[in-house]
Structures are given as structure tokens and as C-alpha cells.
Design goal:
- The structure is a single chain.
- The protein is mainly alpha-helical.
- It has a domain of about 30 residues.
- Helix content is about 35%, strand content about 0%.
- It is built from 1 helix and no strands.
């Protein structure tokens, strides 16, 4: 008895292939890639705009330190 193929027309073992539809997977891969790229660019731009909207910190006076070194010899 002949058992039907579980492959459903993709690749080998699908029978004669007369009634097989053309593969459309490549189109969906391209669309998915474009959508992911658009999503990434949009998220990056929104995060960049959000961070750019932060207020600038107020300028603070710089501290100035003075130091000195005294070397005392012990006459030994």
C-alpha cells in the first residue's frame, strides 16, 4: 500500500511535483529582514532622542588642591 508523503511538496520525496506551488519562503525572509531592520533603526532612533532630551548638568567649580612635600633628614 502506498503511504502519502508527509513532506507536503517541499524537497525530495514529494511525489511527481506537478501540483506543487512555487516556493514563497524567500519573499517572506526578505520581508522579515526588512521589518527587523526597520524595528532596530526605529528603536535606536527613539532611544537616542530620549537620551538627547536629558537636561545638561549645571557646571560646577573645579576644586584646586595644593600640596607640598617636606623632606626632613635625620642626621644619621
Amino acid at each position: 500500500m502506498h503511504r502519502p508523503s508527509l513532506n507536503r511538496g517541499r524537497g525530495r520525496g514529494s511525489g511527481s511535483g506537478r501540483w506543487r506551488r512555487p516556493a514563497r519562503r524567500a519573499v517572506s525572509d526578505v520581508v522579515a529582514t526588512i521589518l527587523l531592520l526597520a524595528l532596530t533603526v526605529t528603536l535606536f532612533a527613539s532611544i537616542f532622542a530620549f537620551v538627547g532630551a536629558f537636561p545638561q548638568p549645571t557646571p560646577q567649580a573645579q576644586n584646586e588642591f595644593q600640596s607640598s612635600l617636606v623632606h626632613a633628614s635625620t642626621g644619621t
